[in-house]
Amino acid sequence: MESLSTFFLENLEMVFIVMLAIYLGMEVISNVPSLLHTPLMSGSNAISGVVIMGAIIILGHARPDDYLTLSLGFLTVVLGMINVVGGFAVTGRMLAMFKKKK
Q1: Across residues 63-92, what is the average pLDDT?
Q2: Do the beta carbons of residue 70 and residue 62 sit within 8 Å?
Q3: Is 51 exposed, middle or buried (0-12, 13-18, 19+ CB in 10 A)?
Q4: What is d(CA 25, CA 98) in angstroms, rounded to the nearest whole number?
Q5: In whole angstroms, what is the distance from residue 85 CA to residue 47 CA?
Q6: 63 vs 29, residue with greater confidence
Q7: What's the angle, vertex CA 26, arms to CA 33 and CA 16, rounded to 5?
Q8: CB atoms within 10 A of CB 52
Q9: Spatial contact of 65 and 24, defined as CB atoms under 8 Å apart
Q10: What pTM, to 2 d.p., does this model score?
Q11: Based on the number of CB atoms within 10 Å of its own CB, is 59 exposed (0-12), middle (13-18) or buried (19 or more)?
């Protein structure tokens, strides 16, 4: 139990960022009505930006010889960027369906 409390005290910034990301994600997703889900999908997919920023902060605090943290952080940034870009691409395609054809 002492090691767990020591971990939280040493990594208070990172724990706070994770808690903020979880809370912000839950609030945004739960408050989007079903009718507005498609137009707001790009906005809710941008929540992955919080994950990307958290991964970049963790990568900045990682030791150069800690290959596990560096590789997981890099993977997190790559997957988060795929989610953000893919979300905007899908939303653009969906909104294009509602445009009038010439």
Answers
A1: 86
A2: yes
A3: buried
A4: 28
A5: 12
A6: 63
A7: 155
A8: 18
A9: no
A10: 0.55
A11: middle
